[in-house]
Amino acid sequence: MKGRNALLLKLTRKLFIAVLLIIICTTSGVYATDIAPDDGNTTEPTVTTTLPYIEMKVKAVKVGESNQILVEMWGSNFTNLEAIEFVFTYNNAKLTPSNVSNNEIVNDLDLYKYEKRPTQAGDKPTALELLEQAEFDQNSTETLSKAFNFETEYASSLDIDLFRYLASDGNNEAMQFIMSKKDENSNISAIDPVLLGKFSFRQTEGTTLDETELATSRIKVSCDDGVTPGEESYYVRDVANGENCTEIVEFTYEKYGSISGKIKASIINPKDNEVKLNATIKTLTIKIFDMKDESVKDMKMWKTTGATYKNTKLSNTGEEKEIGLPQPYQEHQIQLEADGTFTIPSIEFGEYVILIDKDYYGDFIITNVKINSENKDIDFSKYEELEEINIIPGDINNDGLMNSYDSNIYTKDKKGGKANQKINLDDASDRTGINGTKDSNWFTASYNTYRTRGQNIVKKIYNLEGGTYEK
Questions:
Q1: What single-letter DSSP state applies at residue 46?
Q2: At the top level of CATH, which class does the domain 10-247 belong to?
Q3: Which of 1, 192, 317, 390 would suit a FRET pair with 160, their CA atoms being 20 to 30 Å apart?
């Protein structure tokens, strides 16, 4: 008898929680088979009202050997925020809710899937059924909340009311997330975007994400913004009603990355790997070619010495000759930092060939440069053989070789002969040379090093994916 009374007391204490949750769900309206429709108090914004906007920024980061997909919730154009209800789907074949702090998959997820929820008999559930449902939702919220963190600024003023699974559709797992402010006296407002918090998912190994993996089916933003005097304003978009959720909430995907590295000019004795002359250069051109372009895919073009990988080259008599080059996706005139480093931002995710080009130097080509959500900021200096990208001076006619043709053109130029191209190996307008060494000394050292030892190919091609130089 004593045990029965204790159970009744426990159930009674939870009744109030259950009633609150039922009220929340009743006024939320997600699916007709799950939650009752809105109660009719929804106030649509007038034409002059600026809708609140929630941008869900999808970003990928590397955590150990796993990929973590962070979905940042950025809010703007709201005054005195009261609550946000957000119903969304994710592809459970590619994503699994994970702890924000370490990307470990949240434990016991299967216990709180929609099909595990307590059943209710008929349209009028009993008090016991309500309590069972309330307890299930409370435990679900505590478990799934590990996959969401409020931003520090809002951790003390916002709280998660409900976080649970809804009915799934194949691989599209549906979730309902409701948050509200803790203190009625606090005023959470923003015109410009502010980061409210972030969701975390672990990406399934071997999968790639596209822009269909996450989607919204319902958004409801409640604000005490004075649009309706004495009442909260509810801004709602629901796919079930034929409405466009992206008017209020939208998933946006990070699509751009960067490349960076360090470039120098050195003459290295191939026999003993001894540096004979070493310098930091100032300016050069970096061309980025998109592998989606069929003309870029032909690797023979990049491997063949003297082939059509240049816009122009000097003929063996020193005359410029048009030989064609695929149109680059981007072309950058680079001013290197004092230590030879560079960074190129805003490169769209994709696969590229990188051409480092400087007049009268051997080209340096990097293939299989793949920029994506898992590898978006590529620092070439992190690769052992690219710690310092070395370009070799002296390839005067841009054919990838160091031979007598280069010597003939340079000698004529030096003497002011027919092939006068005003060739400078440094970035100065005179022949003062590189790092105090005259241009002629640089050319002689380079010519003697690479020509006489049979190492006359001064164009370098590095396969980033394979981690090897092309032969």
A1: P
A2: mainly beta
A3: 192
